[in-house]
Structure formats: structure tokens, C-alpha cells
């Protein structure tokens, strides 16, 4: 039997793999986006703990960032997937369900990416906040702004302005980390490329297509973040 060509692999015909590869690319973006959001939420809390927390909260935040930045991402995915699945299995036994009950791959992968990226977010937000001039905060308080209004109008926009370059880098790492989530069973881009390569015995073709899709997503993301940086720098006197 003749093997399909590269054009057959990327086609939308009856034997083409383009729909499956695009669906897997969408899964990659979804996992990276959820991980990015989860990591951002963790990062806000971690940055607050390091900047304004007490001795205990600062120690916990330091321990979190030290451990998560020093442990391989793949190990974190294993721990969250199998640890979470063990917890779900224990709860399921209360309802008479026996055996292994796995944590949904999308959920486990997103949490794992978010947990690892949360440490990076923490340091990016902490560094961005420290760039804000103390006089800007003092001026806001002198104008009678409450803490919540000051945060919404001064702290959050300025922190985001200074954090955007770092956030763009974190997003790119989220995209690459999403490929590790395939070990949980999630059919993202790399997993789909492996499936196609096994089915057609064309590993180079499928991994070349996966590489091209990753580069397209990465390039488009870079353009979006560059536009966001330009927008938030308006009126700052910086280019």
C-alpha cells in the first residue's frame, strides 16, 4: 500500500489529517490558556504574599516558588495527575465505585501547567510591582483614592505594563509545556502527531507539520503581546 504524501497528510480530504491536527492544535491552545489563567491567579496571590504578607505567608510563597521552579515540569504533571486521580478514586469508593478513576486529562494538564507557571508569574508580578514609583502611589492616596480604587486605577495597570514582556515569555513556555500533557491522555498537538505518525509510518511529515503549527501559534502570540505592550505604553514616554 502506498504511503500518503505530505500534501495528503495536511489535506482536508477523506484521508487527510488536517482536521485532526487542527483540533489538536485547538486543544493545545486551550490547555495553554487555562494553565496561563490558573498560573496568573496563583501568581497574583504569590506576589502579594511576598510583598505584603507576614512571615509565614512569605515563607510559604518562597517555598512554593523555589520548589516549583526547581522541579521538572513533567514530574509536576505526574504528581498532579496520579495524585489527583488517587483522590478522585478515594471519593468514588464512597459511592460504591471501585477501581482507578482518572482525573480528566484536560483538567489535570491545565492545573499542572498553571501550578508550574504560577511560580514564574509570582516573580514577574513581584518585579513589576517593585518598578512602580512610590510617589505614584502616594499621589493616588493624597487624591483621596481608596485602596480598591488605587489598585484598580494605578497598581494593576502599571504592574501589567511592566509585567507584559515577562507574561509574553510565560505564555510561550505554556505553549511548549502543553506538549507534556499528552502523558495524561489528552490529545493535543504532539500526541496527535504521534498518532498520525504511527498510523501512516510518516513520523517526519507529521512532526514537521506539528512544528509548523507551533511556530504559527507562537508567532501570532508574539504579535498579540507586542501589540498589547505598545497599547499599555501609550502616554508613558517609552517606546
Count of folded domains: 1
Shape, please?
A: flat
- Give the radius of gyration: 22 Å
The amount of helix comes to over 70%
CATH fold naming: MetI-like fold
Mean pLDDT: 86
Sheet with the most strands? Answer: none
> End-to-end span in angstroms?
59 Å
CATH homology group: MetI-like
Return the CATH class.
Answer: Mainly Alpha
Number of helices: 9
List low-pLDDT spans: none
What class would the helix/strand composition place it in?
mainly alpha
Number of strands: 0
> In the CATH classification, which architecture applies?
Orthogonal Bundle
User: Strand portion, in percent?
Assistant: under 5%
Multimerization status: single chain
**H/E element order:** HHHHHHHHH
Structure description:
By secondary structure, the protein is an all-alpha fold. It has one domain: MetI-like (MetI-like fold, Orthogonal Bundle), CATH 1.10.3720. Helix 2 (18-52) runs antiparallel to helix 3 (55-70). The chain has helices at 6-9, 18-52, 55-70, 73-94, 105-131, 134-142, 147-177, 189-200, 203-232. The termini are far apart. The chain contains nine helices and no strands.
Give a quick summary of the entry.
The chain is mainly alpha-helical. The protein is built from 9 helices and no strands.
How do the strands and helices of this protein lay out in sequence?
Layout: H1 6-9, H2 18-52, H3 55-70, H4 73-94, H5 105-131, H6 134-142, H7 147-177, H8 189-200, H9 203-232
Helix pairs in contact: 2-3, 2-5, 2-7, 2-8, 3-5, 4-5, 5-7, 6-7, 7-9, 8-9
